[in-house]
Amino acid sequence: MKAMTDPTDPTESALRYRRFAEEVLAETRRIALAQFRQPIDIQTKADESPVTLADRSVEAHIRARLGAAFPDHGIYGEEEGQQNLDARYVWVIDPIDGTRSFISGVPLWGTLLALLDAGRPVFGVIDAPALGERWIGTAEGCFASTGAGVGSGQGSRCTTSGCTTLAAANVSATSPDMFSGEEYAVFDALSRRARFRRFGGDCYSYAMLAAGHIDAVVEAGLAPYDYLAVVPVIEAAGGVVTDWKGRPLGMGSDGRVLAAATEALHREMLAYTASLA
């Protein structure tokens, strides 16, 4: 692929990045799905999290395509590390977000791709290959596509639910195991005041927040590749996503994420999370 230059017009830039992401993710879908629900070698990383050939193959493919298309951009991936992080533009890759789901045959895993401009997430994709669904967040809005519409450049605009109170909210987290003792106490106090709470979902919970089906997501222990792609998706859909203190998420955030459908709901939740050191 011919190297691309970065346009100065934000609309043109968003369109170019979207076209690139749609093309590359069509390729990585085939790579990942060929190994999903198949016998697969599972290894354990230094942090005791699992990794598979699918994780490594998908990231290697994305990195190669990024290197050819945007040679001046930086890259930060879960499996192959960092390069050129002092560049203005940095791509952040989670090849298989939800590796445990992938290994278990649960289709809620996804590929996350984010672009940072001077450290700020400006473009993000949540791709769910096993479900045939994709969410893209740009300055132009949040777009969801399914089935034959995935990769067509089309998509339906999606917006968050508009829920404004915790008592009416559906709150989600991937697992109670992701919280430390103090963090879980905060999450438990918060979520028990919600209409109901759900565990499970990995990156798919953030997609459902953007689509208006889940009202809030509270998580901890995440890495930049886990959360940076969801920021443009949720914000473009009208939601709010920060750390537990209400600060913008970036490469140096502490891994605690608080996402909500509205500012009012987010403020109510912050009353719980901001109290934790």
From TrEMBL:
Q: In which pathway does it act?
A: Amino-acid biosynthesis; L-histidine biosynthesis; L-histidine from 5-phospho-alpha-D-ribose 1-diphosphate: step 8/9
**Known Pfam families for this protein?**
Inositol_P
Q: Does the keyword Manganese apply?
A: no
Query: Do you know which InterPro entries this protein is assigned to?
Result: His_9_proposed, Inositol_monoP_metal-BS, Inositol_monoP_superfamily, Inositol_monophosphatase-like
Leading EC class: hydrolase
Record's keyword annotation contains Nucleotide-binding: no
- Cite the entry's keywords alphabetically: Amino-acid biosynthesis, Histidine biosynthesis, Hydrolase, Magnesium, Metal-binding
Q: Which cofactor does it need?
A: Mg(2+)
Q: Which reaction does it catalyse?
A: L-histidinol phosphate + H2O = L-histidinol + phosphate
Task: List, in alphabetical order, the Gene Ontology terms for molecular function in this entry.
Answer: histidinol-phosphatase activity
Provide the E.C. number(s) assigned to this enzyme: 3.1.3.15
What the entry lists under NCBIfam families is as follows: his_9_HisN (TIGR02067)
What the record says about family reads:
Belongs to the inositol monophosphatase superfamily.
Instruction: Please give the name of this protein.
Output: Histidinol-phosphatase
